[in-house]
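Morning F.,

Quick status update on the modeling queue. The single chain you submitted on Monday has been processed. Sequence for confirmation:
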Amino acid sequence: MNLFVAPGLAPGVSADAPEDVKYLKLKSFADWPDAEPPAREWLVEGLIPMGTVTFISGDGGLGKTLLGQQLVMAAALGANWCGRKVVQTPSVALFCEDREEEIRRRADRIYATLNVARSDPRLNAVHYECRVGENNQLMYSSWRGDQHSGYRPTDLCRELRASATARAARLLLIDSLHDVFAGNENFRPEARAFVQILANTANRLKGAVVVLAHPSLSGLERGSGTSGSTAWNNAVRSRLYLTVPEGMSPESDVRLLTTVKANYGRAGEKIYLKRRGGVFVVVSREEVRGVGQRVKRVRQA
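C-alpha cells below.
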C-alpha cells in the first residue's frame, strides 16, 4: 500500500490507495467563471429538452407515430407542434412499424396542414428509414466466456447515430421501443443501460432523442403510461403520455397529451389534440367538452 497525497486533497491529508489507482477528474464549484451558466436548450419548450431522451407513450392506435412524424417534419420547417414552436433543425426518423407508403400518405396530410409544398427545400432537412420486419435491435449483451461484460450498441445503433451526425440532425425519432429493445423490460440494469445508450446518442448530437413506446397493461390501468421496470421512467428526463380524455371514445379523434415527467420543466401540463384532415391540431378544453357532450347525446339516443 502506497501512502501519498491525492490531487485536490487538503494540505496534510493523505490517502491509502494502490499505485495503479486513478482519481476522478473532479471539479470545484469555485472553478466556474463569473458569467451566468448557458440557458437550457429545448427542442420544444417545456416538453422536449435537448441533450437527453424523451419518451412519448400511449396505447396502440392512438396516433403516436403520426404525432412523431409531425414532430420531425415540424423540426425541419421550424413550425409548431402541439401548439408550440419547434427549434428548426435537421431530423432523422427510424420507423419500424409502418411501410414507406404509409409514411408518404401521412406526409401529404402534414404538408397540407403546415401549408407547405412537397418541393419546399426545407424538407431536405428531414430524413427517415422504414425497417418493418427487420432486426432493429439497438443494444446487445456482451460476454467474455460465461462472464457478462456489459451492454453495447449494435451496428444499427452506430449506423443510426453516424447518419444523424452526418446530417447535423439534432432530433432523432425512434418508433418504437418494443422494436428496438429486445431485452427484459422488467430487468432494471437492461432498461437503464438501453436509455443510457440513447442518452449518449443525444449527447453526441447535442439534441433530442425521442422514443415512442407502448405502456403495459398495468401502466394503462394505473394511468401512468409506464411499462416494465421503474428504471424506464427514472432514466429518461422527460416523458409525455398520449391518452383519450376521460369520458371520450377513441373514435372521437380527441387526444390528451400530458407531461407525466419533466425534470427540467413543469409536470402535469395538458394539451388537447384533435385529428383533423388526418393530422393532430391543438383544440381548447371548451371544444373538447363540446365534443364530449355530442358523444354523450349520441350514446343516449
